[in-house]
Amino acid sequence: MFDPLPQAAGYAVVLGLGAVFAMGMMATTYALRRYTREIITAEEFTTAGRSVKTGLISCAVVSSWTWAATLLTSTTQVYNNGASGGVYYACGATCQITLFACLAIKAKLRAPNARTYLEIVYARYGVVTHCVYITWGLLTNTMVTAMLLTGGCAVVHDLTGMNPVAACILTVIPCCAYASFGGLKSVILGDYVHTVIMLTIILIFGFVTWSTSSKLGSPGVVWELVSQLATTSPREGNAGGSYLTLHSRSGGISYVINIVGGFGTVFLDNGYFNKAFAANPASTYKGYILGSLAWLPIPAFCSLTMGLGALALQQTSAWPLGRDLTPAEVASGLVLPTYAVALMGKAGGVLTLLMLFMAVTSAFSAQLISVSSIVTYDIYRTYVNKNASGKKLIWVSHVSIIVFAALLAALSILFYYVKVSMGYLFTLLGIVISGGVLPQAMTILWKRQSWAAATFTPPIATCLAITFWLVVTKLKFGAVTYDNTFMDDSVLTGNCVALLVPIILVPALTYLCKPQNFDWSKLLSIKRVDEEEELKEADASIDAEIEQVMSQSGGKVHPLRSHVSEIVSDLVESHEERFIHERQVLSRAFKRCVWVCGALTLALLIVWPMPMYGAAYIFSRRFFTGWVVVFFIWIFYACFQVIVYPIWESRDTLRNIGNGIYWDLTGQSHKLKEWQVAHPEELHVVQSQIDAVLSNRLGNVTYAGDKEKR
Question: Matching Pfam families, A to Z (predicted)?
């Protein structure tokens, strides 16, 4: 611990910035309610009106997948294994998001009214299987959140000396506030702001490291300093002992572990399904594919910059510790913040603190909505109160957010004090949860999978994975200890068993037991929550506002035109053709999506890294410079995709909000009401309710489209 920043800096960021951010997101949610007439019903809270466009979906995917571990662990991998660590981390964790696009299409087509993937499991297999996947889903959320908070509070403590308990508790409070106030839409908008800040800071570190720093300042200088390590402290298992090669035994093992764990944390995390169900139909698969391509350069470029930079400066006077990092410090994720301080002094520490705070809070807020939707719809509405009103469901969502946040803060504090590191939790993820990946995916994709295969595969695969993990640890290292279970061979064995055993179990249990011939139309039994009561209350509120404004506008606004149900009934027929077209486009897109996602996955996992691994090529100065330039260009693509493109897509909404704010500030609020009455199709609540009516009426179009394809 070197505490380059005062405790006040930690409290300023965690408490001060957290409060400002929460208030900003709540103000944004209020603006959307006032100027676009968003009404936070239970459905809106969980699905954001099912109308989020491609840019924001890709931004939300990038933000949700950019954990503290994304930045800290990828940098640690480069520090341990060299250039291979960043590439293997990025490629190994991109393919899951890319492939998830295929699952997102089918989930949205076959269960257009679902809010969680667990509702699909319940509709297909019933109570027992449902309970199994509730367990796996909540376990995924718990482990991911514990890893986020444990890693985050450790770094804040080591950067500022701030009490880790205070850091953990104060981090969760603002997330709870804006997630409870605005639901998924607020979280997605928060993701946008988080991502802008994170990418800006990563670019600052990139420009300083590779261009302006007096300590490094160019790829050539970094190449020279890191190349010397092959002689002075060679990396065992790397080609020539060099850190500038993709031929790395330890890097390859981490690559496999990352792939396995990534499948579990994407396919079993309901947060990714939340975003899929929230997407506009045409944006569902595009958002995930483009989001995966925008996410890849974030860990790749960040770790290349910070990891190799740390290796280059570690033996110089600029290194703040005056010694190498210990293995425990490396496992805790301290490579990145230590290098930031070495490079830029206290300014680097502040930027690191901001970046990691954004990474932790963005991913944590997504976990809050994921858990609240499971508790609300898969536990409370399914087993406690089947006829719960929308207002009651929102209340349950709020309570579940607060309870989950409190429990996970306590668990993360426990992990910190018993010295279970973020890196350990990251490698453990795949062993514990990945046994549920294949049967969960087949529940949505394969109508023949049997009840037994879906129900028994996750627990059997997980038990076998844990058993092999511990047995290999005992046989290879002589004792089952914390450090030994963290070794590459042990973790690799457990992860591989967890992901690969279901490949045998699913078909075996399907054909040994009676295969299903599931009728996908049964998933239409998943219905939206009745929103009538919530809409009537909102209508009454709007009527009161309009009556107040009528005196100012000479009675131009008629109160009855505020009623959402009347507006929707007038407009729904004109939108029927558009709705059918969107569903058919989505249905036809599945085959194309499979080819695109398969090709991207093959390129990322095999075509790009494997030949370089096999050739044992060590980067020349010129090649290394080109390598840095490529990732610099790629990170700029990410900035366009998740910062510029969402603004362009939302330009009409932003213009309308801007007009509304101007009218309010200039005392012309009656113009806002007149505009809203004159342009009902542009109101969010109207668009949401039109799609709700058409989804209930025309859901079977999905299956007609499927039959045409076959």
Answer: SSF
